[in-house]
Amino acid sequence: MKPPIEVLSIFNEILEKITPDEKEIDHIEKVTNSTIKIIRNSKVPDEISIRFIEPQGSTGLKQTALKNTADIDLFIGIDPDFILNHRFSSKKEKKEFIHTKFKDLTNFWLIPCLKDQGLQNVRMSYAEHPYVSADFMGIELDIVICFDVSSEYLQKYGPITSVDRTPHHTRFIRDNVNEKQKDDIRLLKHFFKCYNSYGDKSALGRSGFIGYSAELLIIYYDSIWNLFLNFKEISSKMIYQQKIFNSIKNPYEDKSYLTIKSKIFPNDYLIILDPTDVNRNVGSSISKRAFELINYQIKNFCKKPSTIYFEDHELPAINQLDLTEEQLSCYFYAQFQEIQEDHYTKYRDKLYSLMEQIIKKASKEKTLEPRFKKVIGELVFNTETGQYILAFFTETPTISSNFKREGPMKNSKTHYQKFKEKHPDAFEENEQIFLILKRPFTQFKEFLDKHMDEKSIKGLELIEIGSAIDPKYSPYAAKGMGNLHKNVIPFI
């Protein structure tokens, strides 16, 4: 379906602002070709055989990048035979072998050769295995070694390392997206970014919509307007590319969506199958929170189209929202500062784990009776400043000093009697025994002080624990709490 003229006009206006110009594209190509030449002319270790060096991602063969967001992902595809012909006693041994091998290739080959050719800030970075990050002619570079596995191998066995899929993703998008769809992909990525719901820096859930998922959604629905009109349904259906499944057996064709959802991808909110590896769900990392906010904004745009929906929406500061002191008293934060450089996703994941533990402990007493009501948390972070904010909300920032602990029912005679003997102060109500216990704290901030101190994350320093009613807190803490109030809680 073609978009209304008003919508088409908005799309064209936004595209003029977000599409890279020829000068930017030429510069990226120049940096890419120069880097490839440096690597090709270096002394390549004898143990590997290079099959390709290609730019992946949106600035590479896909050409779906947004203006002024240029970085280059350069992949070095090597012959996988030296791994496939190697016998390992376990998956762990294989993983450790590859990690060590890639670390050595990074340390003793790539980093020295790039430094020798004048690249700046050349350093080792980590994901599943080590890779090289650098700056060259004003462009950020990531240089990644992967195994050049065939499409047939990938479909049958999966990748050797997760990045082995990336070149296949790039080729699939290159071969299945036309120029109009490239523009629609840019619009969709930009829309996600406008609401802080894009990629692994998303302010909503552990991760937002990734670029590859945006590309697959545009291919599936053919256009951004058709996707917008049907966006709500992607949370209740499986997205897969039929043209790929025409040539291979769809492993899920005899299963219902509910079976696939509950049995195969039980922890995933969206199911977007990877056409290059049908056993992988591209939607696995996309949080429900990111989907809910984007779905809400798309619905509003379709009702009343406006360019305002394609403008950057900064995280709202809670002290600039129209909230009463009683409402503000329900919001809290813990601010961390990076003191040791490491990949932000590691800190993100550790802080999410901490947040989930805090919520679990805050919600129930050790004896499983209710503690603080409706505890919700969210993480925001800034990789440039190294700031990480855990924001929390609870309906009951102050609770009673005592609580009633449930004991056994009277008809459970043995347990009832033992409980009564152990607790002389216990009393009976409606054929059940109870006990009044004293809480160690009555304020949510007290609880945070105690439980945050118990946890330390190496590389991060806990700077401050506070509340939205405090007279002073950092602007980023205000945004963390504001994001929780405006972008998370309304959709839970």
Notable features of this structure?
single chain, 492 residues, alpha+beta, Beta Polymerase, domain 2, Poly(a)-polymerase, middle domain, Alpha-Beta Plaits, 3 domains, 4-stranded antiparallel β-sheet, 20% strand
Summary of the model, kept short:
With 492 residues, the protein is α+β, with helices and mostly antiparallel strands.
Topology:
Elements: H1 5-18, H2 22-41, E1 50-56, E2 71-78, H3 81-84, H4 91-116, E3 120-126, E4 130-136, E5 139-147, H5 151-157, H6 166-176, H7 179-194, H8 211-221, H9 224-230, E6 238-239, H10 242-245, H11 257-264, E7 271-274, E8 277-281, H12 288-303, H13 325-328, E9 331-338, H14 344-363, E10 376-382, E11 387-393, E12 402-409, H15 413-422, E13 427-429, E14 432-438, H16 444-453, E15 460-467, H17 475-488
Parallel strand pairs: 2-5, 6-7
Antiparallel strand pairs: 1-2, 3-4, 4-5, 7-8, 9-11, 9-15, 10-11, 12-14, 13-14
Helix pairs in contact: 1-7, 7-8, 8-9
